[in-house]
Amino acid sequence: MARRPLVVGNWKMHKTSREGAAFAEELLALGLPDGVDVALAPAFPALESVGRVLAGTSVALAAQDVFAEPAGAYTGEVSAAMLADLEVSLVLVGHSERRRGRGEAEPELAEKMRRLAERGLTPLYCVGETLEEREAGRTLEALARQMEAFEAFGEPPGSLVVAYEPVWAIGTGRAATPALAAEAHADIRRLLAERFGRDAAADTRLLYGGSVTRGNAAALFAEEEIDGALVGGAALEPGSLLEIARAAARSAGRD
Ligand code: PGA
Known about the structure:
The chain is an alpha/beta fold. The chain has helices spanning 17-30, 47-54, 80-85, 96-101, 106-118, 131-135, 139-147, 178-196, 198-203, 217-221, 238-251, and strands spanning 6-10, 37-41, 59-63, 90-93, 122-127, 161-164, 205-209, 228-231. The protein is globular and about 45 Å long.
């Protein structure tokens, strides 16, 4: 069974609405390969302008976060319904910059995924150990703890995607080696299988994230367990993201 590769560009707090739309136009003009799904995750203010450019194309619109409540008096927050209304299809949940910087933990992240599933949106659930956890031999324990966000789900919320993003590799230029990433992916898939069964686990796309570049993408994608990438810094330039998408398509033998 072949999982179709997926490459997601996470712009974080970069690119205004205008800059995002210009990027999307440039990326489409370059032409994307077949055999890979590509998504862009702009900041909330750029979702509408980027979505307008991507409408009717093969590139999906993603969001970087969602609030855990469906609606109400929550100043500054954005609901799953608001994202669905903008034709967002994929939403990051539990990025380490939110787990650490904003104190988000599993119970809240589970609620976020529940809100997304209610609206038919796909969660892109991020997990990954800190350097301290890895050095203490507690990587699997950290991953298992983060996967507890699925505890209340009888089946995967929506068409789930999981990203393995070791915290020490994000934005550091120190990507995990393909072998290390593949080992963590195998652990994550095993944890998914224990919870949701082998078939659901086998169908779930597992992305690697953390200093992915056009230089190291092919080696990472050569690992069968790695179904694509969640890309930060290297997704800020269209040509760079395109090269990573091409490497993913090649790994699936479709470019
Ligand atoms: P990076 O970020 O590619 O800049 O390391 C990845 C991420 O945080 O999703």
